[in-house]
Amino acid sequence: QVHLAESGGGLVQPGGSLRLSCTASGFTFKSYAMKWYRQPLGKERELVATIGSRGSTYYTDSAKGRFTISRDNAKNTLYLQMNSLKPEDTAVYYCHAQESMYSTPYWGQGTQVTVSS
């Protein structure tokens, strides 16, 4: 059974940093493209960053230059290092796994990130 578990969220002041983790089980992690999404309260879920099975990365404009997505295939874990956080980064952050664009996508339960002074 596929399971994705996010952790590392919390309350941080503007300009601060957080590192999110997503621990995966139940599938061949190294073969899957992994993504981070976020969903601010009352808004639609949006893509933050992507890392391919071979390590290629993509960032949306909101994340570029501040966030870093990475993966440790030996630990079946996905990471999102978030620096220079802004209040507009406040959202529930979700881990997403999908082997290919035609395969079943999987989601974690989400972790809350709140950026506030």
Structure in words:
- With 117 residues, the chain is mainly β.
- The protein is built from no helices and eleven strands.
- It has strands spanning 3-7, 10-12, 18-25, 33-39, 46-51, 57-59, 67-72, 77-82, 91-98, 106-107, 111-115.
- Strands 2, 4, 5, 6, 9, 10 and 11 form a seven-stranded mixed β-sheet that branches. The protein has a four-stranded antiparallel β-sheet with strand order 1-3-8-7, with no helix packed on it.
- The chain is globular and about 40 Å long.
- It starts with a strand and ends with a strand.
Task: Output the keywords.
117 residues, mainly beta, four-stranded antiparallel beta sheet
Category by helix and strand content: mainly beta
Intertermini distance: 40 Å
Helix tally equals: 0
CA gyration radius, whole angstroms: 13 Å
Main beta-sheet strand count, sense and barrel state:
7 strands, mixed
Annotation, overall tally of beta strands: 11
Looking at the structure, what is the overall shape?
A: globular
- Low-pLDDT runs: none
Mean pLDDT: 96
Helix content: under 10%
Strand content: over 45%
